[in-house]
Amino acid sequence: MKIKLIKTQKDTYSFQPFKSSLDWFSISLQQTFFTSVKAMEDKIVRYGSFGFPIIFMICFSLLKSAKSEVYTVGDEDKWDSEVDYVSWSHKYNFSVGDVLVFKYNKGQHNAFEVTESAYRSCDTSSGVVAKYETGDDQIKLTESKKYWFVCNVNGHCLGGMRFGIDVKAGGNTSTDLEPTPSANSGSTTAYASEIWSLRFHIFASAILLTVKL
Question: CA 45 → CA 37, 51, 83, 119, distances in Å?
Fold first, then answer.
């Protein structure tokens, strides 16, 4: 026997009289299915209001933490005399993967990465880690450690062309990837439960309709 569904003005459904217990069970299950569909519409609207912003913020945080920053040493003053590079270095939080750019007139300055002792004494007879002399030196910070830089032109280090930075591992800002428990987390669980409930009703109804038809 085919079942005929009649939709009323209040979004409910009525059925033709049934003749057996199987008819009754089928109709009851389908009533539950239509009720679940209506409930799902309301829950998608309610949960969607916070679900999508949360997903967006998580993705944004991950992208931000993975992004490397490029810093021009001295900013608009570049790498030159009479600039307070110690104060400049305190303006930023440096992370592994960031890049330092030394911009200067080639031949007038240079950039040496040195040890802490060479930095403090401005004596580069020893303790030189790397030399950069192109006038547009790009140095990627590949390790979580303290870096020390000086200009090795005579008198420039003692004149203030030196600074040190403490490079940290990870992004420029700490990001907690584990969600903080909140009222929303319970709602998300309920939303997932409703999805599985809806899938069950669709599957069961399809089987029963196939048998009856």
Answer: 13, 10, 57, 61
